[in-house]
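I am still getting used to backbone structure tokens and would like to learn alongside you. To get us started, please write out a protein record for me. Start from the sequence, derive the backbone structure tokens from it, and show both lines together. Once you have written the record down, we can walk along the chain together:
***
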Amino acid sequence: MSHIAIVDDEVAILHALRRLLKAVPCAYGNQVFPLRVDIFNSPAAALDSLSHVPYDLILTDYRMPEMDGVTLLTEARARQPDAARLILSGYADLNVLVRAINEVEIFRFIAKPWNDYELVAAIGQALHNRELLLENRRLADETRVKAGNMSAQELEAKRLEALEPGITKVNWAEDGSVVLDAEFQDLDKT
């Protein structure tokens, strides 16, 4: 099942997109992608979720009060570089498009109001493209391990990080100990 995040400051659009994606299957060729859809009306809430929930695809509006879609996708890419990225927006400035393509490598820019078929097809294509990229990377990594250019431990760490973002990151305290829960680190000092 593919897990996608949709970010838009308009709640009605979020619900319309969720209804559409429940009713119409996303497919590419003969491959159908069952979806689990999380919706966020706040980029900050989406980024919080991206810190610990793995997503296959992120679809965001461009114009939102807290931050624009390119900024959101830049942060999202830092957290989950393998997630496909799409922008859905009624704002179609050429500079915005160039920035989205060059800075965050979006897969597709979809204009509002969207065509249901084109949106669902774009999501299916993005998910298919993501699978191909991941498979190519996996095969290249296996070749690196066989050639001795990567250790089996490094390969396993990459696999675990893809499954659980942040799992391979270690928070170190000033005394050299490992901090298991970073939000309580400051409490220990009082």
